[in-house]
Amino acid sequence: MGFADLLNDVGGFGRFQWIHVTLLSIPGLLMASQNLLNNFTAGMPGHHCTIPNRTSIASSQNISQSEVDDRELLRAFIPMDASGTKLSKCTRYVEAQWHLLESNVSVIGHQANFSELETEICLDGWTYDKSEFLSTVVSEWDLVCTLRPMKQMSQTIYMGGVLAGAVIFGGLSDRFGRKALLIWSYFQLATLGTCTAFSPSFMTYCIFRFMTGMAVSGVILNTVSLKVEWIPTMSRTLVGTLSSFFFTFGQMVLAGIAHSLRDWRKLQMAVCAPFFLFFLYSWWYSESARWLVLNRRSDEALKHIHRVARINGKPEMVEKITVEVLECHMHKEVQSSKTTHTAYDLIRTTVMRRISLCLMVVWFSTSFAYYGLAMDLQKFGVNIYLIQIIFGLVDFPAKLVALGSLTFLGRRITQGTCLLMSALMIFTNIFVPTDMQSIRTTLACLGKAFTSASFTCIYLFTGELYPTVIRQTGMGFTSTMARVGSMAAPAVLILEEMLPALPSIIYGGAAVVAGIIAFFLPETLNIPLPDTVEDVEEKWAKKNVGAEKLAKKEAVALQEMKKGAVEGDGEITGLNAL
């Protein structure tokens, strides 16, 4: 008997669980907005050097706008780029080149004379195209040309905050509880996320984004644990997958909000202010009864279990379940909780060490490939709002397939297959010509769909593999590698200048390695959650030992059979001789 049996006694997956899971999942609609926000708040609008008073200068040359349009007029002030089809983004002519406006001057002639014409940097700033974005942090603080890397740096800083949050909030949650840390994370995200919209400088913006990233980790980690620890074993797969659909739908919500606002400050406010509402209703949540019992707060755990029984329509269980019954069900776990647990317990024993090392690789590669595909939407040459919606839509069928696979084939096969399939899509894209943009975009969408399904599986898988006493520490420890992967993904794109296919080779290679390693993890399908480190060792080490013992017994039995056969032959020979 264990805590899972108590959950079944008070209604299994009843009304309380439905309300509990739904309220925890709703913020997921805006969690995608936090992670992918940089695609829109730091979008790169079309731009060129500002030319002061160009209309009056043109008038002095007896050139009117009725004779040439604005773009044609810019040719006299701004050189073309290396392709010869677009205006240069970072230079302008020192003196206006009026002869370039003549109809008999070809682009080829223009390019031939380019090196002979004196140019300079954009001394008067830049003029930005507002057809796609009205305002972004790029146009706000001129993060273009020599400052272009600052755009990616802002996302790396945010992911650094998510990394720090995974480390800090993971340990604090095991110490102070899931509910308390989740409430604080909601408040921190709402407050600092809203303050980000009023940032007076890029440095202030980055600081706020870092702190917001920390809160995002707190929300994700504690949401997963509160869900997993209050639902029955048989419902975990369905709940885990359906919850991930909130994040998927949130990607399309982000595209809709970004398209309607198109101003980074308003968009930042729109995706962060709702967390004040989540903060207010989060006080309704019930703290994890498992965690309370393991921290010697059985009286509080009992109150929450009685509350669940009443909400689920099982009032008769209030009298039957007492502190003694609760502690009897979790006697072994309570004894184990008297020992202080640290991060070292994640690698101290054989099975825990194997789980932790494998999960680190899987988390890193899943995040690495996911953000490598999802954080540079402008490279696809498609409307950025449309491609964001497409990237969200492809996740639905991928996750439905993952749900079926998780339910019938198990976690291990699903995890490994999703990673290997995403690697296949990434590698295939390397061989598709760049002019076949629709095929390249389709393959990228499929690759992203498989990495999303991998994320769905790994969150559920990790929560099931680690015991309650250090579940949050384990989630924080392994998901730290995901944050490292998300920070490394944008940096790898720099290697594209050396070899265009190199980033894809690295993304795909990492997914292949992780896909293979995923098959070394224990299977958790329909297995009750472990509560102690000893549970983990007994469940999965015993299987290995049992297999070895069975093999030895079979070998001994085979030898005895052979021996018996030889003795039997000897007896038959002796009888024949007589």
UniProtKB/TrEMBL annotation:
Gene Ontology MF terms in the entry: transmembrane transporter activity
Subcellular location: Basal cell membrane
InterPro entries: MFS_dom, MFS_sugar_transport-like, MFS_trans_sf
Major facilitator superfamily (MFS) profile domain segment(s): 104-526
Membrane disposition: Multi-pass membrane protein
Cellular component aspect of the GO annotation: basal plasma membrane
Protein origin, superkingdom: Eukaryota
Pfam family, one: Sugar_tr
Residues that span the membrane, as ranges: 156-173, 180-201, 207-226, 238-261, 267-286, 355-373, 385-409, 416-433, 501-521
Keywords of this entry: Membrane, Transmembrane, Transmembrane helix
Identification of the protein by name: Solute carrier family 22 member 6
The organism's taxonomic lineage, starting at the top: Eukaryota, Metazoa, Chordata, Craniata, Vertebrata
